[in-house]
Amino acid sequence: MATAPEPVFSVSEFLDLVIELLGQRDFEVQGEVTGAKSHPTGFYFSLKDERGGGLMDCYMSPYAYRGAGIALEDGMLVKVGGIASIYKPKGRFSFRVQTIQLAGEGSLKKAYEALKKKLTEEGLFDRKRALPEFISRVGLITSRTGAVIDDFRRNLAPLGLSVLHYDVRVEGAQAVPQVKRALEWFGRHAERVDALVLVRGGGSMEDLQAFNDEYVVRGVFGSRVPTVVSIGHDRDVPLAQMAADASASTPTATAHVINASWDRLRRLPETSQKLVFAYDTALSAVRADVGGHAHRLATQMARIAGAADRIQQRLGHALAHVGHRIGHLRDAVERHDRFLASVSPERQLRLGYSIVTDGAGSVIRDAAQLKPGHAVRTRLARGAFVSEVKELSSE
Amino acid sequence: MPKTTEKNDIAKSLRELERIVAWFDEQEQVDVQQGLEKVREGAVLVKELRTRLKEVENEFNEVKKELEDDDE
Q1: Whole-angstrom Cα distance, residue A75 to residue A85?
Q2: Contact call for A345 and B50, based on CB within 8 A
Q3: pLDDT computed for residue B2 by the predictor
Q4: In sequence order, what DSSP letters do the residues of A36-52 get, joined into one string?
Q5: Who's near A377: CB < 8 A, 6+ residues apart?
Q6: How far apart are CA A98 and CA A86, in angstroms?
Q7: Closest CA to B70 of A320, A298, A305
Q8: Nearest 5 degrees, angle CA A64-CA A78-CA A142?
Q9: Between the N and C ends of chain B, which has fewer C-beta atoms within 10 Å?
Q10: Are A47 and A34 in contact, with CB atoms under 8 Å apart?
Q11: Which of B32, B44, B66, B72 is most worth mutating to test chain A (most A CB atoms within 10 A of its CB)?
Q12: Exposed/middle/buried for A20, CB within 10 Å: 0-12, 13-18, 19+?
C-alpha cells in the first residue's frame, strides 16, 4: 500500500511554517546584551548567557524600543519578552522583542543612577505643588488585587471621598505600558479628579523598575493634577516618587496625606475655640491699655491743673502787689495835694492876708520900695483893688 | 507800646510833683508868686495823676474780677 508521500516544502513554505509554529506563543528570555546597535529600521542586539555559551540575535522595532524607555548597552542583563522568528531572506533565527526589562541589581542600579542624574539636571525633582485643600475626588493607579488598595481605601477618612480607580499591573513586563496608559488616561480626564495617587507595596529594585521608567517618571511629573506617589522601597527611592508632589511610606500613610487636606475643616471646633480665646486675649490687652492710658492722662491733667493753680496763685500775688502799688501812688498824690494846699499862698489870702504888687506886678515886701502917690494893686482872697500910697512908715 | 508810655507818664508826673513839694521844703521863705505858680503846676499834676490813677485802678479791678471769675 502506497503511503502518501511526505510533502516537500519550498524553502519559503518551510520557513513560513516554522515561523508560524514558533510564533504560537510568547517567551521570556534573560541574558546579557552584546553587540547593541541602533539602526533606522530598529534596534539590533544579541543576548548571550553568562555561562553556557548560548547566543541569540534579537530585533526590536523602533516603536517598541522607544516605548521601553531603556538605553540598552552591552553588558546589561535584561529579560526580554517576545516571539521567536526566522529572518526569511537570510534564513536566520531572530527573537522579535516586544518588551524588555532590566534584570540584575547591577544593570538596574546603573540605569537608575543614570536616569536620576539626567532628570535631576532637568529639575524634575525640584518642583513640588501643594495638594489642594479638601480633596474629594481621588484618581488611584494601582493593582486591583492585593492588600495595597484595601489599605488605602480603608484608611481614607469617612468624608464621602470618591475614588476613581485605574487597574494596572505594578510589576512585570506589562507594568510600564499599563502605568503609562493610566497616566495618559488621567491626563485626558484631569477635570474628574482633585489629586492623583500612584501606590504600590514594597519589592526589590527589579520588581519596582516600572517606577524607575523614564516615561512613567515624566508622566507623573507632567500630571495636570497634583500627585501623591508611594512605592515601597528599601534604599533607592523610586524616581516616580521623587518626581511626585507628595509621597508617603505606605498605602495607609498615603490615605492620611489625602485626609490631611481636610484638616482645616476637621479642626474647625478647635479653631473656633482658639479664635474666641485669641479675641478675648486681644480685648483684655486693649482694655488694659486703655486703662493705662486713662490713668496717665488723668495724672497729666492733674499736673496741668496743678500748674494752672500755681500760675493763678502767682498771678493773684502779682495782682495784689499792683493793687498795693496803686494804693501807695494814690496816697502819695493825696499827700502831695494836701501839702501843696497847705503851702499855697492862696490859703494865706483866705486867712485874711493880702498881696500887694506895684505897677509892674512885683510883690511889695518892703515899704522902702514905695513912695507916696504910687499906685499899688492889692489882691484879696476874692477880688483885688488898686489904691494910692499916702504915707509910709518903716516899722 | 501805650501801656509803657502811660506807666512812664504816671511815674514822670509823680516825680515832677515830688520836685515841686521838695522845692517848697527847700525855701526858707516862699516867694508868693513863684509859690503860686508851683502850686498851680502841682494842682495840674495832681488832677492828671488822679485821673490816670483812677483809670489804672479801674483796669486793675477788671483784671482782678476776671481772675476771680476764673476761679469759680
Answers
A1: 24
A2: no
A3: 43
A4: EEEETTEEEEEEE-SSS
A5: A356, A357, A358, A359, A361, A384, A385, A386
A6: 16
A7: A305
A8: 70
A9: C
A10: yes
A11: B32
A12: exposed
- Residue pLDDT, tens place only, A225-257: 999 999 987 788 999 999 999 999 899 999 999
- Where chain A has pLDDT below 70, the residues are 1-2, 395
A55-60 and A42-48 beta bridge pairing: antiparallel
The DSSP bridge partners found for residue A355 are: A379
Q: How far apart are CA A116 and CA A124, in angstroms?
A: 9
Sign of the Cα torsion A315, A316, A322, A326 reads: positive
Q: For residue A106, what is the enclosing H or E element?
A: helix A105-122
The DSSP letter of residue B48 is H
Using alpha carbons, select from B45, B37, B40 the residue that is nearest to residue B17.
Answer: B45
Residue range B12-67, pLDDT digits in tens: 888 888 898 888 888 777 777 788 888 888 889 889 888 888 888 888 888 888 87
Number of H helices, E strands in chain B: 2, 0
DSSP single-letter state for residue B30: -
Distances (CA, A) of A240 to A128, A221, A349: 13, 8, 141
Place of cell 495840674: B44
ipTM score assigned to the predicted complex = 0.80
pLDDT at A1: 55
Q: Which residue of chain B is at minimal alpha-carbon distance from A355?
A: B32
Distance (Å, rounded) from C-alpha A239 to C-alpha A208?
A: 10
DSSP state of A211: G
Q: What is the largest CA-CA distance in chain B?
A: 59
Q: What is the 3-state secondary structure (H, E, C) of A233-281?
A: CCCCCCHHHHCCCEECCCHHHHHHHHHHCCHHHHCHHHHHHHHHHHHHH
What are A55's strand-pairing partners? A48
* CB-defined contacts A:B, below 8 A: 68
Rounded to a whole number of angstroms, the distance from the CA of B40 to the nearest CA of chain A is 9
Best B7, B16, B20, B39 member to test A by mutation, with max A CBs in 10 Å, is B39
pLDDT in tens, A249-306: 899 999 999 999 888 777 777 777 888 888 888 888 888 888 888 888 888 888 888 8
- Of A326, A333, A345, Cβ closest to residue B32: A345
Look at A346 and B36 and tell me if their CB atoms are within 8 Å. Answer: yes
Closest CB from B21, B35, B70 relative to A339: B21
3-state secondary structure of A361: coil
The amino acid at A59: Y
Q: Which three cell numbers stand for residue A261?
A: 487636606
